[in-house]
Amino acid sequence: MPGRMHAETRPQHLATLAWAMAIARVEDTFQHAGNAMDAVAQQAAFSHHLFSAQNVAITLWAFAKLLQAPEPLLFLFRRHVRRNQFRGFEAMPIAATVWALARIAEVSEHATRHNAFILDLRNSAGAQRV
């Protein structure tokens, strides 16, 4: 059923699915793959408290690789990382998490600047018409 969370979906499965989609660049190949990543983000947000350090790192890396920034999931993972202060993280998951958060922040900032630029253009065009 659409919109239903599967109770037995494990964080490792979500992380692996997100990783595989990022490696295969599914977003570049299939027009509707964004829906699959949205489903991963929704399910991960639902079960974020069950994610291991490695699963957090892999999932964030996958979203960063696909240049996606699902805000609710990012908020929950950032809270998870802050609360646990990287306990349970080894060097590679820490590096992957930091890279992913930085890349997602860069993408989000670029999108914000782009949207502000478009808004300025629209406002300028509207002001010239008056």
Report on the structure:
The chain is an all-alpha fold. Helix content is 75%, strand content 0%. Helix 1 packs antiparallel against helix 3 (33-46). It is globular, with a radius of gyration of 17 Å. The termini are far apart. Residues 1-5 have low confidence and may be disordered.
In short:
The chain is built from 6 helices and no strands. The longest helix has 39 residues. It has one domain.
List keywords for this structure.
130 residues, 75% helix, globular, disordered N terminus
Gyration radius, in Å: 17 Å
Shape field: globular
- Provide the number of structural domains: 1
Average of the residue pLDDT scores: 76
Which structural class do you get from the secondary structure elements?
A: mainly alpha
How widely separated are the two ends?
51 Å
User: Fraction of residues in helices?
Assistant: over 70%
Helix-strand pattern:
HHHHHH
Tally of helical segments: 6
The proportion of residues in beta strands is under 5%
**Main sheet?**
none
Uncertain parts: 1-5
User: How many strand segments?
Assistant: 0
